[in-house]
Design goal:
Number of domains: 1
Distance between the termini: 70 Å
Radius of gyration: 23 Å
Structural class: mainly alpha
């Protein structure tokens, strides 16, 4: 009787009626999604202003891509160095992790620009590189099951570097397509809204990942977290693949390769872009001298758990949300240069404040200011990059900018490793404070407004 019942159930669920029911529910879900796509209103759109359906859908899919991409990164980014420490790594090896990922990532920007300029569409290149990058998460979570000791540590460093390299290979195409997806008059509030949603997701996911890691222990907790990161990352790639191809990128555009001398001359013809590169390079160098060692200091010197470290990240993310809400309209009204000039001195003071940290709660006010200031700085710098580069060569200029700043992620951690091992965390903080402070002064003195206010809202905008 049991066998007959089981066979009858198989026939029942395989019957046309049930198949039709499932298809009907699937069709209803697709219909609801399409209605939502048509009704969704992009942030910053003026009353009465309308967008064509492909443009609206592209902005919605780009928004969802950012949301799920940051969910994925929130399961990995804050905990990768802790994963390495759990496998027995030293502070120097954590610095090597940052340097290796920075080096391979930096080497990918110019090849990425060449691929973007020869690709039939930017979207396909971004999707392909994102899938390769996210596949590295699968290998990262498998490492403790197949390797051990120093070999496992080396494997994690290598896989993390390959993940970054694949991701950065698609950045020039991603940057160029971002400018085509979002028209200049909407960029300030749209990107603020997109980043707000990304930060809100991180606010939930970072402490959740910390709880999972504490609950399952090391290394299993990290493996669970990385598996969830992989799932969210695949959803992000799916959303990006559904962005309609803008007309400006509907066909491949072949451009002549610039010799080195002409490349330098082309950069010099964009003075706003050149000043942006020089000032952000110096500030990022100051950041990278100390960045890899915050988690090492909190875990080993202060005895904080992964969950508590994740909670500190959540504080920063919370005030990143506040910053996004504040700086989106602020950039629209006051421009890019003023936003960068106001936020960079606050960023410069953060490592100085860390010199006085003696207990976990001392980190909270620092992360409050840091989350708020970095939100405005990152929003303004990205829009400044779009505003200061020519449309027809944006992948190339994006690659130049990211290559120059990527060099700081190689040099900074290596210098920081020498300082950390020889004199300790405090000397890294002082060096970071000096580098960031000089950069903030140069930003105030040298950085002018971009060629146009890329994010000024259309007339009638609220």
């Amino acid at each position: 009787m049991d066998a007959s019942s089981t066979g009858a159930e198989r026939l029942l669920f395989a019957s046309p009626g049930h198949s039709v029911g499932r298809l009907a529910r699937f069709g209803a879900a697709r219909s609801w999604v399409r209605r939502y796509e048509r009704r969704w209103r992009p942030p910053g759109l003026a009353p009465g202003q309308r967008l064509e359906d492909p443009e609206r859908r592209g902005m919605l899919m780009f928004w969802l891509d950012g949301l799920f991409a940051n969910i994925s990164e929130s399961f990995v980014g804050p905990y990768l160095s802790l994963y390495l420490l759990a496998l027995g790594a030293t502070g120097g090896q954590v610095g090597l992790l940052s340097a290796a990922t920075g080096l391979l990532g930096t080497l990918m920007f110019l090849p990425g620009a060449r691929l973007a300029e020869r690709s039939p569409n930017y979207r396909g290149l971004v999707v392909a590189t994102s899938l390769v990058a996210r596949s590295m998460l699968l290998f990262l979570l498998l490492v403790p099951w197949v390797l051990g000791g120093q070999v496992a540590i080396a494997a994690v460093i290598l896989l993390a570097a390959l993940r970054t390299a694949a991701s950065q290979l698609g950045v020039p195409a991603w940057t160029a397509l971002s400018a085509l997806i979002v028209r200049p008059s909407l960029r300030g509030r749209y990107f603020a809204s997109r980043t707000f949603a990304m930060s809100l997701a991180a606010l939930v996911v970072v402490p959740l990942a910390g709880r999972l890691i504490n609950a399952f222990g090391a290394p299993r907790g990290y493996q669970v977290s990385f598996g969830l990161a992989l799932a969210a990352g695949l959803v992000s790639s799916l959303a990006y693949s559904r962005i309609p191809l803008p007309r400006a990128q509907a066909a491949p555009a072949t451009r002549p390769r610039l010799p080195l001398g002409e490349l330098v001359a082309a950069v010099r013809r964009q003075p706003a872009f050149l000043r942006l590169c020089l000032t952000t390079m110096l500030l990022n160098l100051g950041v990278q001298v100390v960045a890899p060692y915050f988690n090492v200091y909190m875990a080993r010197s202060m005895g904080m758990t992964a969950g508590l470290i994740g909670l500190m990240t959540t504080v920063s993310t919370t005030f990143d949300l506040v910053g996004q809400r504040f700086f989106g309209p602020f950039v629209d009204r006051h421009g890019l240069r003023r936003t960068i000039a106001l936020t960079s001195p606050l960023i410069a003071c953060l490592p100085f404040a860390w010199l006085f940290v003696r207990a976990p709660w001392h980190i909270v006010p620092i992360n409050v200011v840091g989350g708020f200031a970095w939100a405005g700085y990152n929003l303004a710098v990205f829009n400044y990059l779009l505003a200061s580069t020519p449309d027809d060569r944006r992948p190339l200029y994006s690659a130049i900018y990211n290559t120059l700043n990527g060099l700081t992620t190689v040099v900074g951690p290596l210098v920081g490793a020498l300082l950390f091992d020889a004199w300790g965390f405090s000397v890294c903080l002082v060096a970071s404070f000096i580098g960031r402070g000089v950069a903030a002064v140069l930003i105030i003195l040298l950085l002018g407004e971009a060629g146009y206010r890329a994010v000024r809202p259309a007339k009638g905008a609220a």
